[in-house]
Design a protein that fits this description.
This protein is of the alpha/beta class and 386 residues long. It has two domains: 197 residues, Glycogen Phosphorylase B (Rossmann fold, 3-Layer(aba) Sandwich), CATH 3.40.50; 154 residues, 3-Layer(aba) Sandwich (Rossmann fold). Helix content is 47%, strand content 15%. Strands 3-2-1-4-5-6-7 form a seven-stranded parallel beta sheet, sandwiched between helices. Strands 10-9-8-11-12-13 form a six-stranded parallel beta sheet, sandwiched between helices. Strand 6, helix 7 and strand 7 form a beta-alpha-beta unit. Helix 2 crosses helix 8, helix 5 packs parallel to helix 6 and helix 9 runs parallel beside helix 10. The longest helix has 19 residues.
Length: 386
Amino acid sequence: MDPIQQSLELPALRKILAVFGTRPEAIKLAPVIKVLEEERDVFRTKICVSGQHREMLDQVLNVFSIRPDYDLDVMKPNQDLFDLTARVLLGLRDVLAQEKPDWILVQGDTTTAVIASLAGFYCGIKVGHVEAGLRSHNKNLPFPEEVNRRITDVLADLYFVPTELSKNNLLKEGFSDGRIIVTGNTVIDALVWLRQRIAHQAVEINALPNLDWSKQIILVTGHRRESFGQDFKSICHALLAIAKLYPDVNIIYPVHLNPNVQAPVKKLLINVPNLHLITPLDYEKFVWLMSKAYIILTDSGGIQEEAPALNKPVLIMRRVTERPEGIAAGTAKLIGVEMEAIVDNVRFLLEDSREYMRMAKAKNPYGDGTAAIKIVEVLRNYSSHT
């Protein structure tokens, strides 16, 4: 057969550009990227990172052996959302002009996700939104994530939703049923992959060389923008009170690098013997630490999904959550940011074994670890007839 004729009969590769900038986005897109890379006869996959979370993003890239093709490196000292938004948008202009992808994949509710979707819209490029449809129904909580995810959904063409509830949110807003696919959450894919990887190896936390791992552990994360200020001080005071009430319980807090987190933590929580403030961990070590924890106390979104997969009760230090499925299933509890409420709910789980087991054994509502395969299958089939 003539080489030119043969090349014309081969199906064109579908060009996928995955755009992300934060640690959670990287964790949740990594399984999709890995599946895409396994299908090189169908997809040509490129990676663009904004660098919205610099150090923490790089940690995840290393764990999953992902090498970006483009790095916008947008983070600058003392920048605000205006600066970040403008830098991501302008940086993507040149990337999209060069790559001309068929699809842009974004994840979640970050500034990078919404601006990459907007850039795709400007260029007439289809957008697939991984973890679409989440809603708190309060545009200011979480800020700015709730508005980011709503705008991203308006701009997207395909919606990969984690649960039926997320699908129903989109249907109520008038989105087409045919473009909404329930996949489960890709964070479970990442968690399954990583647990298999570390199952037979020792993981060391260098910052905790003398910790007695036989004692109960409360793992804490706290970094949400809407909590900065008085609410975050209330969280810190609660941690201090818990540490004093339960001196035989170790509280481990990998402290986010944001100055609005660092300052109150360093002022209020230093020199407490059983309260261990450490630097952020890479994902591999953090998953291992979650598996060792007795209770997880967090304001994170992703951890609300990960903790149930590890049979860990999760107490959510927020006023609202866009992930009510965990609460309905009994794996998570929304406890607010008031000091007394945080202390009381931790005390309840530490002292009531029946309540602890009820939460620990509740069924994880966020999927079975096959979300990435389902997403790639949809991209393959959708592209073939559009």
